Each structure stands twice: as structure tokens, then as C-alpha cells.
Amino acid sequence: MTAISPTDQAAARATSIVAAEAQAKARLRKRHALVIGLRLAILVVFLGLWELCADYNIIDPFFFSSPSGIWEQIWSWVTEGTSQGPLWLQIYVTLEETFLGFAIGAVGGIVAGIILGRNKLLADVFSIYIKIANSVPRVVLGSVFIIALGLGMASKVALAVVMVFFVVFANAFQGVREADRAMIANAQILGASPMQITTSVIIPSAMSWILASLHVSFGFALVGAVVGEFLGAKQGMGLLISTAQGAFNANGVFAAMIILAVMALVVEFLITRFENYVVKWRPAPFNEQGT
Amino acid sequence: MQSQTMAAEKLSPAAPPTDAAIAIDDVTLRFVTPDGHMMTAIRDFTMTVARGEFACVVGPTGCGKSTTLNLVTGLLRPTTGNVRVMGNPVTDISRDIGFVFQADALFPWRSVIDNVAAGPLFRGTPKAQAYDKARDWIGRVGLSRFEKHYPHQLSGGMRKRVALAQTFINQPKILLMDEPFSALDMQTRTAMQDELLGLWSGLKSSVVFVTHDLEEAVALADKVYVLTAGPGTVKSVYRIDLPRPRVMADIRYDPKFIEIAKVIWNDLREEVQLGQSRGLQTGH
Ligand SMILES: Nc1ncnc2c1ncn2[C@@H]1O[C@H](COP(=O)(O)OP(=O)(O)O)[C@@H](O)[C@H]1O
Ligand SMILES: [Mg+2]
Predict the structure, then answer these.
(1) Could you tell me which chain A residue has the CA closest to the CA of B101?
(2) Residue B220 lies in a domain
(3) Looking at the domain assignment, is residue B2 inside a domain?
(4) Residues B122 and B86 in one domain
(5) Which is nearest to B57 in space by CA: B250, B228, B183?
(6) How does pLDDT run across B227-282, given as a tens digit for each residue?
(7) Structural domains counted in chain B
């Protein structure tokens, strides 16, 4: 039997820890690759089946299109332009309406939510009207806006605004109401004025509620803009869809849909980046720790 | 009475002198409950804290301890009676007051240094000066290495240290503490009590420290108020003449300390039992 000196033991332990760490990292990488691989496989199988069914007329490509048909349509829009002008212009117009509507609706919703959340009397008085306004099916307002504001951008922006406003308002209001009472009292005693309490306690603590609503409501703004264009417009992705629909061009409808989905995903990604930047003080959720 | 020979001298609740730091004079406070009933939280409550004095308040849960502190801050107004702070009636939240809460009241979106600098910044101190001061206070509570950390990255004891620095940076003449250490484990609590006494001896503020832990009260205080089960009123007041500076880890084995704690516990026990049996009846 030989004695092992403590330093030998420590060194051995250190190397075994390094080895274990490397192993764990390799396992994580492997799993990550597996997830991505499976995702790609599902996409390929889905598109392949769709294409095959269309080729063998199991589903009618006239109604349900096919991946190759959609791709050809997108390619022709990119290279030759659409019947309403270049594709990028349609995307630009729709995005502009969406962003304007989103910005106005979100700012309005946040401001209204904070004011009503901070003032019990105003909240009690206005809550009934907000409930009523919220129960109106908002897409119907699109027609009203087209009549009142014309075929230009204003009517689409207005529809996007009402789609966004109520969602953001409801969340901002709730976030303000849930602000921790001890934290507010603490700020008050530390010397904060009511305005300082709003800016440095209420708004930060409502921030995670507000950001959650921004995720959802950007999609709503896009729906508002597209539906507005659908109901009557001179430019935009919505018009592209309604033109394609009028011509029974299923490829066109699907192609426009996919372009819209990509737009939404890109913006969603940007909002998530912004959110992570703003709430970096939050502890990582358990399932993300250690990755 | 034998108590004269001991370190715990029972005092008679006298009318407050006018130069006291805190004077609560014959105050009753009723709440209107959400279903429209009146509920008495504290009644005929009289308490005085002299300048530089450390007073502890003990009593069963729900007897009105937090309510008492909120009367001093001005967040609650008495139904009858009056409250004076530094000789003046309480009208608004006074700049002289600091408050350490039971729950975590740090701002989770601010780093340690931003949390500690909050008070001076709210009060209009220039930024550079506020942060210099904050750095100094963070050093005094031993957290210099953690300036940039967020509260969720700290242990419970460290968060309490941040809370102490956040409160002490305003150099409050009146320090109110509502069961500040009750959520901490035994060792951390003892360390925090030493920390508190150290900071307090540098500042000599007048303190009201609420706790339901009698030993904590005796170990820290110059004067202990025992409250009755709710609606709370002062049952008895004891002066604690244990010498300072006190070392928390040792004081609880001091025979004098044990003797005092026993005497006061005799007073407190029936109130705690009463509070508990009432709590069971009302389902609290
Ligand atoms: N805002 C309030 N409205 C109604 N009742 C309250 C309110 N705050 C406290 N109370 C009641 O007053 C009593 C004393 O409360 P509190 O001072 O918090 O007790 P303690 O801090 O001693 O546990 C309790 O019975 C509590 O339910
Ligand atoms: Mg309490």
C-alpha cells in the first residue's frame, strides 16, 4: 500500500474535473446538433411529402400549391417584380404601416396603462369604456377606417394601432398594479417623488409585462396592416394576397404568406434581443442555466 | 420589586417629553376592512424613544407592530391621538427617516451600487457624489467586490447588507426596522445584528426595531416594549442595562441576559398564547 500525498490527490482531482467538464460540454454539443438535425429532417420530410402529393395529384396543386410552385412565384417576384411593382416596395410599404401602427399603439398603450394603473379614480371611471371598446371586433374597424381615411397609408396604420393598443394597455396596466408595495414604500422613504417612483419603480417593474405584450402585439400590428390592405389599398403585401386570390393564384397566396411569416420572425428576433438587453437583471430561468 | 437589582428595570409608561425623537401619544388606529367593518389595529398606544436610543418592540403576530412603524413614517395616520417625530407632528414622509423592511425591498433591476445610491439620487445629490458615497457605504458593509452584482446574484444575508447600506447612506436620524432579519438563518442573523450595532454606534440614530424574537430584542435594545395581542397596546416597558458594546454571539450566554429574557418572557408568553388561540379562531 502506498500513501498518496494530498497534493497528488488534489492534482488528480483537478484533472478529473477538467475531463468531466469536457465530457459534459461534448454531451451538450451533441444534443444541440441532434435537435437541429431533427428540426431540419422534419422540414425536409414535410416539404418532400407536399411536393410528392402535388406531383402525383393526391392534392390538387391548383388549390393547395406546391413548394416548387411557391418557390417559382417568389423567384419571379424577386426577379421580375409583382403586378403592383417591385416586391421590395410591397414589403417596405407593409412594414412601414406595421411599424408606425405598432409604435403608436404601443406607446399609447403604455402611457394609458401607466396613467390608469397609477390613478384609481381614472381606472374606475374608464374601465367600463375600455371593456366596451375592447369587445368590438377590431377587424371590422378596418372598413370604417378605409371609409374615413381613404385607401392610403393612414387607414392601415389606424387599424394596426387599435390592434396593438389594447393588448399593450392591458399588460401595462396589470404590470403597474402588480408593482411590489414594499418596493414602492422603500423608494418613498428613500426620498423619491411621485414622478421618480413612476420612472424608477413602476415602469421597470411593469417592464416584463410590457415586453411580453410587445411580442404578441407586433404580430397583431402586421395583421392589422395586411387586413387593411386587403380591404382596399394601392400597395402592400395584403394587396398582393388579395390580387392573387382574385386570380385563383394559390402559389401567390402561399408565397406572400411565407414572406410575411419571415418578416414577422425577423422582427420577433429583434424584439427578443431588445428584451434580453433591457431585462438583463433577471435571473436566468432554470432550463436555460448552464447552457 | 426584585427587578431593581437586575439589569431589566420595569418602567411606567409616562407622558412623552417634548424633546423625544419619537413620541406616540395615546394613539388609536382603526382600519376600514374591505367589507366595510371597522377593525382596531392598535389602541391607546403610548411610546417614546429618546434621541440616540435603541428601542425594540416585541409582540405576537398581528398585534400591530408594523402599523406602529407606519405611523412614524406617515404612511398611516392615527384615528385619534398624535405622533411626533423630532418634536414635530408627522405630516409627510420625513427626510430624517430610514426604514429597513422585512421582505426584500431592493430594486431587482438595479445593481448593488445603483441600489445603494438610490437614496441620494432621489434626493438630488449630484451623480458623482452619490456614487462616491455609495461606494463608501458598500465598503462599510463589506460588499466592495459585489458592486456590479444584481440582487438575485447575492445571498439573503448579502442582500440584507445592501438594504442596510441603502438605508444608512441617507444618515437617518430615525431608523425604523420591521423584523429585518427574520428571514435569515441563525449565523447570518447574528452577524447582521453585530453589523447593525456597529453602523448604529457610528450614527447614533434613534431606532425602533420590531421583532417577534424576544432574545433578539433583549440583545439589541436599550428599551423593550412588550405589546398585547391585537388590538395592540403597550403591556410593559423594560430598560435593558447590559453594557455596550455588545457582542451578539456571546451575549446570549451572559447570565444577566438570560435572567432578563426570562422576566420579559413571563410577560410576553400569555400574549403569544392569546394571539395564537385567536389566530386559530379567525383562521389567520
Ligand atoms: N391596510 C390594512 N387594512 C386593514 N387591516 C389591516 C391593514 N394593515 C394591517 N391590518 C390589520 O391590523 C392588524 C395589525 O397588523 P400589523 O401591524 O401588520 O401586525 P404585526 O406587524 O404586529 O404582525 C392585523 O390584524 C392586520 O390584519
Ligand atoms: Mg408585521
Answers:
(1) A182
(2) yes
(3) no
(4) no
(5) B228
(6) 998 788 999 999 999 998 999 989 989 999 999 999 999 989 988 888 888 776 66
(7) 2
- Residue B27: give its domain's CATH number: 3.40.50.300
pLDDT tens-digit series, residues B33-57 = 888 888 899 999 999 999 999 999 9
Q: How sure is the predictor about B3, in pLDDT bands with cuts at 50, 70 and 90?
A: very low
Hey, which of B38, B63, B102 would you mutate to test ligand 1's pocket, going by the most ligand atoms within 8 Å of its Cβ?
A: B63
CATH class of the A69-280 domain in this structure? mainly alpha
Query: 3-state SS of chain A?
Result: CCCCCHHHHHHHHHHHHHHHHHHHHHHHHHHHHHHHHHHHHHHHHHHHHHHHHHHCCCCCHHHHCCHHHHHHHHHHHHHHCECCECHHHHHHHHHHHHHHHHHHHHHHHHHHHHHHHHCHHHHHHHHHHHHHHHHCCHHHHHHHHHHHHCCCHHHHHHHHHHHHHHHHHHHHHHHHHCCCHHHHHHHHHHCCCHHHHHHHHHHHHHHHHHHHHHHHHHHHHHHHHHHHHHHCCCCCHHHHHHHHHHCCCHHHHHHHHHHHHHHHHHHHHHHHHHHHHHCCCCCCCHHHCCC
Residue B141: domain span: 106-171
From B129, B153, B171, the end of a domain falls on B171
Minimum Cα–Cα distance from A201: chain B residue: B107
Q: DSSP label at B206?
A: E
Q: Nearest-5° angle of CA B56, CA B196, CA B142? A: 165
Specify the pTM.
0.81
CB distance B99–A186 less than 8 Å? yes
Asked whether residue B144 is domain-assigned, the answer is: yes
Q: What is the ipTM of this complex?
A: 0.89
Instruction: Note the pLDDT of residue B13.
Output: 62
Q: In terms of domains, do B219 and B259 share one?
A: yes
Over the stretch B156-197, which tens digit does the pLDDT of each residue have?
999 999 999 999 999 999 999 999 999 899 899 999 999 999
The yes-or-no verdict on residue B6 having pLDDT over 60 is no
Pocket of ligand 1 (CB under 6 A): B 31, 33, 39, 41, 59, 61-67, 230
Residue closest via CA to ligand 1's atom 1 equals: B31
